[in-house]
Amino acid sequence: MARVIGVDSSTQSCKVVVRDAATGALLASGRASHPAGTEVDPAHWWTALQDALAQAGGLDGVDAVSVGGQQHGMVVLDEQGRVIRPALLWNDTRSAQAASDLVAEVGAAEIVARTGSLPVASFTATKLRWLRDAEPDNAARVAAVCLPHDWLTWRLRGYGPAGESALGPVLDELVTDRSDASGTSYFSPATGTYDRDLLVRALGNDAVLPRVLGPSDSVPGPGFLVGPGAGDNAAAALGLDARPGDVVVSLGTSGTVFAATGAPTADPSGIVAGFADATGGFLPLVCTLNAARVLDAVAGLLGVDHDELGRLALSAEPGAGGAVLVPYFEGERTPNLPDATATLSGLTLGSTTRANLARAAIEGMLCGLADGLSAAQELGVVAQRILLTGGAAANPAVQAIAAQVFDVPVEVPSPGEYVADGAARQAAWVLTGQRPSWPVDLVSSPAPDPRPEIRERYAAAASAYA
Fold it and tell me: I want to staple 255 with a disulfide (CB 3.0 to 4.6 A). Which of 245, 291, 321, 352 is the partner?
């Protein structure tokens, strides 16, 4: 029996799954935490990966491995393969001004035409510009730039700083895939090539960039094949076996809406990022910074857990009695308002109830994502069903309200580690030469119950805020 490993190195933790390459059956798993913060020494990711692999039985007898990881994070290396400074993560917004500067210099339409996306503070190029401006000495030392999954793949293969790795600091052995490269703002998903001019404009000098592998390409590891890996959302789409017509709505630390498509998109407004996927296609994506933690905040305010928050929300009428939460608690990426704060409006003495506050939290979280789906549809993305995933998707109230907020049928897959599963599917793909057709189980298909008035009230409140 061939065994493959998929890794999800996310913001919060590292998850590992071991699966049967033929059937997809889960054989073992492991998990280790990452430190909190918006900048992290990548050494913590390496330690967590080793711990999670050990829990899952290690690498002996494994035939192929692929690593999925959080997109955008800036990992900069010197000539000796050493990490120059802690990696800036996707949710570090200190590069917001750098993003504005790059757009002003190149032009919104031009940069979208060249990269498929309008850069915001999340994207790697903006973090490199911040490094150039805020830490010029560190910027001058940069010999290579990579992303979290690229760096972990490199270390897993045996490369790294001299004295810390078997094969040493061979920067030319850094590899990546189209999906993660497409989130840098110096790569074109349409052509599959790096835009060196944009890299130099951001960093101030050229640098080694990871070689981009195809969806089923591999490189050698110590006794096993290593796949190209993927950005977290592209890996999740592969883990869910998403096909054209499928739209994934993921409710995690961030909220994401992404669709499997056969054609690239380009949105000069910046709402829809025109990423590549992990299968050779494309993954237009909308990301909000505020998702499941909106529910955490309101549940904490009401002194309840998530189950009780859901029960309260379902006891309120759709529309929450007119209460509308625009949940920009941590700034926002879509719309691009990094300094925004949350607002709660529409309250009366009669409508200020615990139930309405609970329902307004869920409606507000979902309405921001529904607006993102509408933006993608305006670019030609076809939506035939929504796959609702993430920890918050297990809440019955979230499922029921999603069926009211979205105008596309909603299905809820079984809870799972879909980023790690997608990486495992990719590992099986590089091993066998065929994209796996492992089944994905569904736990719920809430009956459609469209309530357009919810979206209308939210749109008015969000517009008033902006």
Answer: 291
In this structure, are residues 251 and 392 in contact, taking their beta carbons and an 8 Å threshold?
yes
Work out the end-to-end distance of the chain between its first and last CA atoms, rounded to an integer number of angstroms: 56
- Give backbone dihedrals phi and psi of 258, rounded to 5 degrees, phi first: -145, 150
Output the pTM of the full model: 0.91
- Segment 287-318, tens digit of pLDDT: 998 999 999 999 999 999 999 999 999 999 99
What is the distance between the alpha carbons of residues 246 and 410, in angstroms, rounded to a whole number?
10
User: Looking at this protein, which amino acid is placed at residue 91?
Assistant: N
Amino acid occupying residue 458: Y
User: What is the predicted pLDDT for the residue at 446?
Assistant: 94
Whether residue 284 has a cis bond before it, omega within 30° of 0: no
Confidence of residue 225 (pLDDT cuts 50, 70, 90): very high
Weakest mean pLDDT among 79-83, 218-222, 332-336:
332-336
Q: Among residues 324, 317, 327, which one has the least CA distance to residue 355?
A: 317
Active site residues: 232
**51/47 Cα distance (integer angstroms):** 6
Across the range 237-259, mean pLDDT stands at: 94
- Residue type, position 350, single letter: G
Q: Are 417 and 26 in contact (CB under 8 A)?
A: no
Give tens-digit pLDDT for 411-459. Answer: 999 999 999 999 999 999 999 999 999 999 999 999 999 999 999 999 9
- From residue 123, alpha-carbon distances to 9, 73, 88, 155 in Å are 18, 8, 10, 23
Query: Looking up tokens 């290579």, which residue turns up?
Result: 144
